[in-house]
Each structure stands twice: as structure tokens, then as C-alpha cells.
Amino acid sequence: MSEVDARHAQLAKLREPFEPGAIGKLPKPYRRDSQKGECRECGGYHGLPAMHLDYVGHAALTDRLLQVDPAWTWEPMATDQVGLPQFDNFGGLWIRLTICGVTRLGYGDAQGKTGANAMKEAIGDALRNAGMRFGAALDLWHKGDLWEAKEERGEVDAPAPQQPQQAAAKPVPAVGESPMEKFQAQFDRVQHDVEGLNALWKWARNSGAPENIINQIKGALAALDQAA
To answer: Contact, 99 vs 75, CB < 8 A?
Structure first.
């Protein structure tokens, strides 16, 4: 097999389907002003009713890239005066992703986040976008693009109401062995991160946490929603 054929064979592995456990659910409320509540489908706390789009997170994509090319790299297309990644006027980040010697562009943004979480979110989003150019999770991106196109045209409608069903219990990350202290430590780490707060919300709901913990998580989610 020639070097070019071997490279193509490696890159083709990027297009292999991801395991179900590597695919997350991103809620997309049917209305921007939807009232928030506990979601029976994903267990999160967000506007309802909502459609859930499948997506591959930063860790799962990084694992795939390492499997295909342990020496993969990325770099920002522009840097500021101290050499840090430079965001554009829209708050987005352009990057170059290189896998098996092939370089393609990607673009990411922070989805309204601020501070250090904004940088991490933009990098992860840019890597997923650039990875899609190589075919990684392309089928999942297709569904999301269709949703965004409909949303821009104002064609997104909520489905007809259904009879409520008992949601199956889902495994959630454990917070720790000493509930209150471990909860507070975890909360302090994720209080500015929507995904982290939703994971903490699922734990609190499924573990029968006290009302003050539930209210603390709700308050943090509401604060992030108002700041967006």
C-alpha cells in the first residue's frame, strides 16, 4: 500500500459511526421564550417542549482523533499581540486542524459563554467543526444543519402534545461520598457552565437532593440564561 493510500485509509476511520455512549443530546426548545422545566427525555432543565439533537462532545472527538493520528494538531489562524488565539469580530475562532498531514479549517464560537469557559467552548466547537470537514460525525451535523435552516426560516413547530410517560431512570455522574461538601465543590466548579449544571441537576433530581440544592442549581441556570 502506498503512503497516500495508507493516509486515506487512516482518514477514512474518522467517518466511522460513534458509539452510542459517545453521543450526547443537545436540547433545542421550539420557542425562544419557552418556559423551563424538567425534561423527561434528557433529564436536563431547559425550555420545553424541545427537540434533542445528537452531538459528539470534545472528549469523544479527541479520542477519535488520537486513534486515527496520535500526532494530530490544531492551531489558531490568527494570534494576538501576546501569541494567544485571536477571536474575530463575531466572537468566533478560526483554526487549522491537521490530521495525518492533511489540514482543514474549522470555526467555533462560545455560544454566549464568557470567561475561561468561553475559550474552552470555542476551541471544542472549532475542533468539532473542523473534524466534520474530515467526515467525523457528519451525519449528526446534517441533522443539526437542517434544524438551523428551519429555525432561520421560522418553520420550527412544536409537536402535538403527548400523554406523559414515566421516564426511565438514567445513570448520572456521582457527585461524591459526602453529599453536601462534595455537592458544593462540584457546584463551584460548574456554576458558570450550562452542561455541567445540567449534569448536576440530573444527579440532584435522581438522588432526591434537598430543596435548597435544587434551588441553588436552578438559580445558577437562570443567571446564565439571563446573561446569554
So the answer is: no
Q: State the residue for C-alpha cell 412544536.
A: 158
Cell of 109: 464560537
In the beta sheet, which residues pair with residue 36?
47
pLDDT of 146 reads: 54
Phi and psi at residue 220, to the nearest 5°: -70, -40
Count CB neighbours of 15 within 10 A. 12
Cell of 107: 470555526
Number of domains in the chain: 1
pLDDT in tens, 23-36: 888 888 878 788 88
Whole-number percent of the chain with pLDDT over 70: 80
Q: DSSP letter string over 22-72?
A: GEEEEEEESSTTPPEEE-TTT--EEESSEEEEEEE-HHHHHHHHHHH-TT-
Q: Is the dihedral of CA 224, 226, 227, 228 positive or negative?
A: positive
CA 25, CA 143: separation in Å to the nearest integer? 12
In whole angstroms, what is the distance from residue 130 CA to residue 95 CA? 8
Give the residue numbers spanning the domain of 188: 172-228
Query: Mind listing the pLDDT tens digit for each residue in 45-103?
Result: 888 888 888 888 889 999 999 999 999 999 999 999 999 999 999 889 999 999 999 99
Q: Is residue 31 part of a domain?
A: no
Answer whether the bond into residue 49 is a cis peptide, omega within 30°. Answer: yes
In a domain, 180, yes or no: yes
